Q: What sequence folds into this?
DNA sequence: CTAAGCATACCGACTGGTTGGTATGCTTAG
DNA sequence: CTAAGCATACCAACCAGTCGGTATGCTTAG
């Protein structure tokens, strides 16, 4: 057994992430993490100075992976069309494609999980939760501003409302996927968002 | 001090409901409930045989209140128009009206909270969580079926997808309201759903 | 009317197990 | 040798739940 601290830490984060989505942070014990990761108390507290420290690390990891997904898929979308509206629709379509038909891993948003147990956390963690989607807001806000400049919406809506619509459908779609135990539920709602955007910016005939 | 067991039980349910939305069920201790309700262990375990029993009672209470809201507002909507599409839009509008500008009590859906800690619960509780929206699905499914019979949608969507869209926007909107600490976020997304429905069933000119 | 009998409502000390966290020392790679 | 990585043993605080007991008020027999 080689001694690779980074691998152990990664393993802890991986299993803890799943456990938080199943039991909630408050309902998950450190001992559960130890068992699932196949390690002992010593190893855990060598890598994390407290359970709260684990919570922060999990959140930071999640936000980072999430932002990476955003940038990757937006870059793909931008290379597939020159029109901002099409880029936005392709971006949402790529997210839809990714989430369709996948039941593994069981879905869940760490930020939503934390939001429903916010009082367990310290002020800094709360702040991190609240600003977890900042990058999405920035990138999609800019993209939608470009859309609005080029196309007039058929109803009076703001870019912020549309971004929030995507975000809400994402969070709600995840909950539906868990409720129905059917990964497609999220993809379906991303599809509805695409429908809405299409209808909203469709030219009148 | 009069002896009113029902009042004590109601008080426990009320404060426990709030605590669950703030700490999560697993992160909330019975002692916290005792303090918040101003009672003692004896009183609590007189009314609930276990903490899990409280979880079930909270869920049953929530679903019942939720169903009542559904029936009340749908009855209002049905008395305000004869057209199924208008009834549906009015219904959503009434929900929007109710949620706008209210920051008290802090928002939250007990079903969403439970879904994010599902493994804490027994099989029966899980079943109750999953079927928590059954009545909404039935009532809105019927209403939307009537809409589809009368109006052709401009895009190929199903009644189930539309009902899920409302549900997802509700759950997502609640999460946004918590994230932004702004009660209007939910109302705004219900407004977007109305927009979507309007555009979807609008006659071509 | 009255008092015995009893059920409901509640109190708070207590218990055994679990919690997050610590102290200490062994192992192993460099 | 050194230090990072990790295991074991342990601790105090807290957890859900129990239990013996008390207070209150309703029912009913005399």
A:
């Amino acid at each position: 057994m080689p001694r690779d601290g980074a691998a152990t830490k990664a393993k802890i984060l991986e299993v803890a992430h799943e456990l938080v989505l199943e039991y909630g942070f408050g309902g998950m014990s450190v001992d559960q993490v130890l068992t699932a990761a196949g390690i002992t108390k010593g190893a855990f507290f060598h890598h994390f100075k407290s359970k709260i420290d684990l919570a922060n690390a999990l959140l930071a990891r999640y936000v980072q992976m999430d932002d990476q997904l955003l940038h990757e898929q937006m870059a793909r979308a931008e290379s597939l069309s020159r029109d901002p509206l099409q880029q936005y629709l392709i971006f949402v379509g790529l997210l839809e494609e990714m989430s369709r038909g996948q039941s593994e891993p069981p879905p869940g948003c760490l930020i939503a999980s934390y939001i429903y147990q916010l009082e367990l956390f310290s002020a800094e963690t709360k702040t991190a939760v609240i600003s977890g989607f900042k990058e999405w807001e920035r990138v999609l806000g800019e993209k939608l501003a470009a859309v609005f400049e080029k196309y007039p919406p058929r109803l009076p809506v703001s870019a912020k409302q549309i971004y929030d619509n995507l975000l809400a459908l994402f969070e709600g779609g995840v909950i539906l996927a868990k409720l129905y135990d059917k990964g497609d539920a999220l993809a379906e709602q991303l599809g509805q968002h695409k429908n809405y955007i299409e209808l909203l910016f469709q030219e009148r005939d």
Summary: Chain A touches chain B through 51 residues (CB under 8 Å). Residues 2-3, 29-31, 41, 45, 49-51 of chain A lie near DNA strand C (CB under 10 Å from a C1'). The mean pLDDT of chain A is 94. Residues 51-80 of chain A form the longest helix (30 residues).
